[in-house]
Amino acid sequence: MKPGQANTMKNLHPLSMLTLAVMAALWSPNGRGESYFNPAFLSEDTASVADLSRFEQGHQQAPGVYRVDIWRNDEFIGTQDLTFVAAEGAAPPAAGLAPCIQRDFLQRLGVNMTAFPALASEPKESCVALENLLPGSVVAFDFASLRLRLSLPQAAMSNSARGYIPPDEWDEGIPALLLNYSLTGNKGSDDDSHYLNLQSGLNYGPWRLRNNGAWRYTRNNGQRHSEWENIGTWLQRSIIPLKSEMVLGDSNTGNDVFDSIGFRGGRLYSSDSMYPDSLQGYAPTVRGIARTPAKVVIRQNGYVIYQSYVQPGAFAISDLNPTSSSGDLEVTVEEKDGSQQRYTVPYSTVPLLQREGRLKYDLVAGEYRSGNSQKDTPFFGQGTMIVGLPGGYTVYGGTQMASRYAAAAIGAGKNLGDWGAISLDVTHARSQLADDSWHEGQSLRFLYAKSLNGYGTNFQLLGYRYSTRGFYTLDDVAWKRMSGYEYSETENDKNGVPDVVSYHNLTWSKKGRFQVNISQSLGDYGSVYLSGSEQTYWGTSDSNIWYQLGYAGGWKGISYSLSWSWNRSVGIDGTDRIVSANVSIPFSLFTPNGYRRDSVLDRAYATASASRNKDGDSSWQTGVSGTLLEGRNLNYSVTQGHTSNNGSSGSASANWQATYGTVGAGYNYSRDQHDFNWQLAGGVVGHADGVTFSQPLGDTNVLIKAPGASGVKVENQTGVKTDWRGYAVMPYATVYRYNRVALDTNSMNDHTDVENNVSSVVPTRGALVRAAFDTRIGVRALITVRRGDRFVPFGAIVREVNSGVTSMAGEEGQIYLSGLPLSGELLIQWGDSAQERCRATYTLPQESLNQAITMMGARCERE
C-alpha cells in the first residue's frame, strides 16, 4: 500500500471503514475462494480486533437456543424454543444455523415414526439428519424473521386431521383460585334494584371446582326483597384418553337428542372441542327492540342468567353464556315507562351430523334440577349416542328414564351437499302427570340448515316439531300441579302484585313448534334477517309466538336499520308489536381532512332512533356516541328524546374497559322519574406468585408473567396490560387450540426489555395456563471500556456475570447493554485463551433509573 493510500484509510470515517470491511469479506479476487475478514480494515492495530473467524464461513450467528415460529407444510404450528447448531455451508437467510430436530419433536409434528425404522432408531436426545432420513423433506430457517419452515412429504405423516394438535401439547394449567364478579344496580325515584353474580373456582391439576351464585335486591312501593340463590356447584375435569369431559354436581344435560334439562348428579360426555376444527358447532343471539332505556333480563331453567341495560332501538345480545347448552330463554325487556315485553327465544341445535367414523356419547344420572319451586326433583338417567356413517349419513338415538317417565328416541341425518343438511327423529314417551294420569305419545322433529353462499343466504336453523296429544317431556312431568302461573319473587307492579313470569297448563300439551333463523345479504344494499318461533298446543287456539324481521345497511360509514317484532305468550294477556328505525352517522363525514385514527371527532357518531308499538305509544331519541382514550376503551353515549306517554326523556352512559375490570354508569330521566344505573365487572386470580386482578374472566384464561415489566400492553386485548408486578390475565382463551400471546414492546418503558415478546399456549377446558416471558429490567447504558491504555477489541463478546445480559463491543470500546443492574461486573472475551479475556466492574449512578440511556467509562482488568 502506498503512503498516500495509508493516509486515506486513516482519515476514513469509522462507519466507512466497517463498510469496506464487510465488502472485503464478501468479495474475493478468486471467485471461488473463501471469504476472509482482514482485521486491518477495521484498525491498523490488528490486536485491537477480536477473533472474527466465525464470520469467514458465513456463520453469522452463534449457535444456541432461539425462539422461533414453526410452520409445517405452510401451516402454523406454534412458537417455541429450539436449539440451533452450526451448519456448514448454510447460506443466508439461515445465518449459518440449522435446527437440532429430535425424535419427540417429529412425533409432535405428526410424523409417522413407525414407517421409518431408521428414524425411529435414532437416540432420543440426538439431532436427526431429517433430510437424509426422511426423503423429500426440506428444512428452511429464516433467522431475520425467526421462522422455521418444515416441508414434510404427505406419505410421511400420520393420518391426522388438519389443525390437529397432539394431546401432549395440551396444558392443564397451574393451581389457582378464580373469582368472577358482576354487579349491576339501579336507583330510581320509586324503586331500587341490585344484582350481584359471583362465579368462583379452584383449579388443581386437571380438576376444576366451580360455583355460580347470585344475589338480588329490590325495593318497590316500600317493599324490600333480598335473596341469595345458588345457581350451581360442580366439579369438572377433562378425560383426555377418552376425548371426553366429566362433570359432578349441578349442570345440564346435552341437547342433541332430548331437550336440555338441569340436574344434580354426574355426566360423562364426548367433547367436540378436543377434536380439530376440521372434524367438528350454535349459540343463540337474543334480539329485541327497546322503546326506551330498558333493562333486559334473561332467564333459563328458572334462573336469571343475564341482566343488563340497553339503549332505545333494536338490540342484539350475542355474548350470552347460558347455564345450559340448550333450553328456551325467557326474555323480559323492562321499559322505563313501566311497560314490559316478554318472549321466548328457542335454543336448540342445527341438524345432528357427525363425520364418518365419529362416535359421540352422553351419559347422565342424577336428580332433575330447576330454579322453579313448583317443580319436583325426580331421579332420572339418560343416555344418548350419535354415530357418523359412510355416505354422509348419521344415526342417533337415546333413552330417558325416571320413576314416572320413560322415553326413547331414534333418528337419522343426512348431508345433502348443495341442498344443505337435514335430520329427522321420533321420540316415544310414557308419562305420569301431576294428577296421576298416564299418557303415551310421540314427537316428530325435523331440522334443516343451509348456507347459500353464492346468494348470500344463510338458513342458520329451520325446524319443526309435531307432537301427538299424549306426548310429554320430563320437564312437563316435573310440575307439581297441572296448571298455574309462575310469579317473580322480586318484581311487582305499581300495586304491589307479583309479576307474572310464565304460565303452564299440562292439559294443553304441546302440538307443533316452528322455528326459523334466516339471513339474506343484499350486497351493497345491506342485509335482511328473520328470526322467530311459534308453539301451538292441543286444547287451545292460543300459541306462543315471537318473530323479528329486520333490515340493516350502510353507505359511506353511515349505518341504518329497520326492525319489526311481534310476540305473544299463552296465558298472559297482551300482544306486543313494535317497529323501530335507527341511523348512525360518523362525524368524519364532515371533517375536511378525512378520517384520522387518532382523532376523537372521527370516533364519534350522531345517532337517531324511533319506535312505535301496537297501542300507538311512540318514542324517538337523538344523541351522540363514540369512544375515547388512546386504547379506545371508553365508550360513551348521550341521548335526548320524547315518549308519547311520558314526555321528554334523556340518558347518558359510559363504559370503561379498564385493566382491572369494566365499569359502566348511566343516567336516565323522564317526566315522572329519574334513575341512575351502574355496572361493575371483573376477575381476581390467586396463584403461586400472588394475586392478579383482571377484566371479567372467561371459562379458560391465560396468566401472563413478565416479572418487573409493569404497564405493558397485551396485543389484541382492549385495555389489558400488566400490573405493577408484571402480571396480567388474558381472558377467553380458546381450548385445545394454539393461543398467541404477545406483549406490545412499544408500550415498554426505557428500563424494560424482553427476550421474546410472543408466546403460544394450548389450554385444556377451564385451565389457567401461564405464558412466561424472560424480561430484563434495569438500566440501558453505553459503557466505554479500556484495557490498559487501549480500548477492548472490536467484536469482543460481553456478558454481565450476575444478570446474564450479553452484548458485543463496538468501535473504541463502546458496549451497549440493556437491563443492567446499577452495579455489576462485565466479563469481556475476544479469544479462547486466558490472556484474551478480562473483567470490568462498574457502578451506575442512582439517577440512571430516570434516564433513557446512561454513558460512562470502565476499566477492564485481567483475571
TrEMBL record:
Keyword Protein transport: no
Protein location: Cell outer membrane
Domain PapC N-terminal, first and last residues per copy: 36-184
Membrane disposition: Multi-pass membrane protein
Keyword Transferase: no
Keywords: Cell outer membrane, Fimbrium biogenesis, Membrane, Signal, Transmembrane, Transmembrane beta strand, Transport
Domain PapC-like C-terminal: 782-846
Location, primary (coarse class): membrane
Similarity annotation: Belongs to the fimbrial export usher family.
Protein name: Outer membrane usher protein SfmD
Designated gene of the protein: sfmD
